[in-house]
Design a protein that fits this description.
Distance between the termini: 9 Å
Number of helices: 5
Order of helices and strands: HHHHH
Number of strands: 0
Radius of gyration: 14 Å
Largest sheet: none
Length: 116
């Protein structure tokens, strides 16, 4: 396991965890766009839980690589779904937002798979 893998994984987990907390706290800058994209507010606890589980899974993956791989794949799919939701809502200027969170997850996943 390289220093880069650990660093990128911890950054990805921190960013994803921050995003989960923002959803749980229903931060205005998170909730309003999600409503604009047509995401039902009843989904927020589930979406926050998915992000929180992914963040914890990334950290656990430093000790159990299969868990990190599963968490990374799950988060990549989550953020791909977020991009799809943004595109479906035709808010093209918002596409970079989920990609900013997805980028370190993709990096952590790639570095984890390379280390295996």
């Amino acid at each position: 396991m390289s220093t880069a893998h650990v660093a990128v994984t911890l950054v990805a987990a921190a960013m994803t965890g921050f995003s989960a907390v923002s959803v749980f706290l229903r931060a205005k800058w998170v909730v309003e766009p999600m409503a604009d994209y047509g995401i039902p507010m009843a989904w927020l606890p589930w979406l926050g839980a998915a992000k929180a589980a992914g963040a914890l899974g990334l950290v656990a993956g430093l000790f159990l690589p299969v868990v990190g791989t599963a968490a990374g794949v799950g988060l990549v799919l989550y953020f791909a779904g977020a991009v799809v939701a943004v595109v479906r809502a035709r808010w093209y200027a918002h596409i970079p937002f989920p990609l900013v969170y997805a980028a370190p997850v993709v990096g952590a996943l790639a570095l984890g798979l390379a280390a295996a």
